[in-house]
Amino acid sequence: MSAITADFIADQNRTRLADHREDFEALARKLARRGLDPEALVRDAMAFAVAAPSWGVGTGGTRFARFPGPGEPRHVFDKLADCGLVHSLTRLTPTVSPHFPWDKVKDYTELREAAKSHGLAFDAVNSNTFQDQAGQPLSYKFGSLTHTDKAVREQAIAHNVECVEIGRALGSKALTVWIGDGSNFAGQSSLARAFDRYLDSTAAIYRALPEDWRMLLEHKLYEPAFYSTVISDWGSSYLAAQHLGPKAECLVDLGHHAPNVNIEQIVARLARFGKLGGFHFNDSKYGDDDLDAASVEPFRLYLVFHELAEARRTIGPSFSPAYMIDQSHNVTDPIESLMQSAIEIARARAQAQLVDADALAAAQEANDALTAHRLLKAGFLTDVSPLIAEARVRAGGALDPIATYRASGYRAAAARERPAIAAGSAGIV
Ligand code: LRH
Ligand code: MN
Question: Which of 252, 253, 282 to mutate to test the pocket of ligand 1 (most atoms within 8 A of CB)?
Answer without folding.
Answer: 253
